[in-house]
Amino acid sequence: MVVGRDKVQNLLPKTPESGFTLIELLIAIAIFGIVISSVYGAYRATFNIVHGSEYQMEVADKARVVVERLNEDLRSIVTVPGSIFLGEQHAYADFVGDNLSFVSSAHLVLRKADAFTGNILIQYQSELDMDTGLLNLYRTEIILLPGVKLEDLADAKDGQKHLICQGLLEMRFTYLDRDGRESEEWQVDEVVPTNPPTPPEEQEFPAVVAIELRFAKSAKSENSTVFKTAVALPQPWKKQG
């Protein structure tokens, strides 16, 4: 008896068809989603760390420029009769942006034509940036020519004005006298030469200028980065004995 091919195939055991059920597909999709979420979370955390590090480096560079410039200017301050030192506190909205003016022999030379060996009036001024809502710090220097009085230059607009720093939330100056007492403002008007001349040690210039820079990514940022330093001013020579 010969059995047909179709009947032989019917007598063989049936193998299950290959493929995934709906439940298996859902489980696979869920596992894939968990893996992708973990990878994305790790990537985002790494990106935030890198981005934060870049911002901190940028802020540190800005602070270094300001501190080095102020340190050089203040260490070259002129405290002889005829000089001035004006530290004024200013507020912009909720921010503090102090101004400082003094006579110094330091110069910001960017070109050969800017070279000068005399004294200059230096002004540090904080101005509100209307685009960012933060403060910009400017440095203006005005050459003191013979016969020109300082009070005529206090509001001069023709000095060399340079942008020193951007993105400041606050710019504070604090002044300490020889006894360590602090003051938020300091004023030494132009000293009129007397006969006999006023001894240099009697001029009331601060002994130390403390500087505080506060940076933020935006005016509404809750986090800020603060840099603090202090510069000891050269004191007038005192006669011994």
Describe it for me?
- The chain is α+β, with helices and mostly antiparallel strands and 241 residues long.
- It has one domain (49-232).
- The chain is 25% helix and 29% strand.
- The strands form two sheets. Strands 1, 4, 5, 6, 7, 8, 9, 10 and 11 form a nine-stranded antiparallel sheet that branches.
- The longest helix is centred in the N-terminal third of the chain and has 54 residues, at 22-75.
- The termini are far apart.
Question: Outline of this structure?
Answer:
The chain is an alpha+beta fold and 241 residues long. It is built from 2 helices and 11 strands; from the N terminus they run ααβββββββββββ. It has helices spanning 5-11, 22-75, and strands spanning 85-88, 91-92, 95-96, 99-104, 120-128, 135-143, 160-176, 182-183, 186-188, 208-215, 225-232.
Number of helices: 2
Q: Got a strand count? A: 11
Radius of gyration: 35 Å
Number of domains: 1
- Largest sheet features: 9 strands, antiparallel
What's the layout of helices and strands?
Elements: H1 5-11, H2 22-75, E1 85-88, E2 91-92, E3 95-96, E4 99-104, E5 120-128, E6 135-143, E7 160-176, E8 182-183, E9 186-188, E10 208-215, E11 225-232
Antiparallel strand pairs: 1-4, 1-9, 2-3, 4-5, 5-6, 6-7, 7-8, 7-10, 10-11
Features:
11 strands; single chain; 9-stranded antiparallel sheet; 241 residues; two-stranded antiparallel ribbon; alpha+beta; 2 helices
